[in-house]
Amino acid sequence: MVLMLAAGILVGAVLGLTGAGGGILAVPALMATQGWALPQAAPVALLAVVAGAALGTYEGWRRRLVRYRAAILMAACGLPFAALGARAAHILPASLLAGLFAAVMLIVAWRAWQGGGAKAADSANMDAVCRINPDTGRLRWTAASAAALAGVGAFTGFLTGLLGVGGGFVIVPALRRLSDLSMHAIVATSLMGIMLVGGGSVLAAGWHGAKLPPLQTAGFVLATALGMAAGRWAIRRLSPPLVLRGFAVLVAAVAAAMLWHAGQAVLA
């Protein structure tokens, strides 16, 4: 239980620092500390990430950083696909899911390492499809911007339902590429999207028969919320490139361990 609480604090801190990646660490943390398979760990991990994302969304809302219309559109398109992902998670073999999860983690680690070596992301993105109206400070809505955000939401929703991840590792880089939002606004909007899509995915997992142990779930959710608060405090005091590089190393190490365990399970 102590290890699980420590893992929850770490997951929440990563979510608060990056707005992406907390969910991708929550599942292996529960698998390692509780001995659960991925389908059992996924809904508990996702619920904890949703709770942490809700705290981050509240903070971003107070600072007027959340682009709530974009987050709601992504969630509306993501929820149906989250249900499809949850259904697929109950059909596919656990070893295959673990291998797929580890492969996704390696991609996330590689992208985070690249981001850690890049310049600050707050400069204007001249190729952005979703652009800010300088007169209102809001996004300009066009057919192209709506379609782009809908696609991001659908893909995020499917991965969320399938693997129990928050999806911020999809939303954050997508918004960096598609919009000219500041990095702080991107993280805040990502957290709202995670909260909405993840909450729906937890309900979908429950509909398909997933069980959430009360004591472990409550402890992990509380620890993640505490870590989230610490991460949001620390983000103003740490170098973003350093945070991304550290996150990349951590995720790659966890992915390697998951691949090794998945290979052992297949050979056994």
Can you characterise this structure?
- This protein is mainly alpha-helical.
- The chain has one domain (2-267).
- The protein is built from ten helices and no strands.
- The protein has helices at residues 2-18, 22-34, 38-62, 68-89, 94-116, 143-163, 168-178, 183-207, 214-234, 240-267.
- The chain starts with a helix and ends with a helix.
- Residues 119-123 have low confidence and may be disordered.
Q: Considering DSSP H and I runs of 4 or more, what fraction of the residues is helical?
A: over 70%
Terminal CA distance reads 28 Å
Low-confidence stretches: 119-123
User: Can you summarize the main beta sheet?
Assistant: none
Radius of gyration: 17 Å
Q: How many separate domains?
A: 1
Fold topology:
Blueprint: H1 2-18, H2 22-34, H3 38-62, H4 68-89, H5 94-116, H6 143-163, H7 168-178, H8 183-207, H9 214-234, H10 240-267
Helix pairs in contact: 1-2, 1-3, 1-9, 2-3, 3-8, 3-9, 4-6, 4-8, 5-10, 6-7, 6-8, 7-8
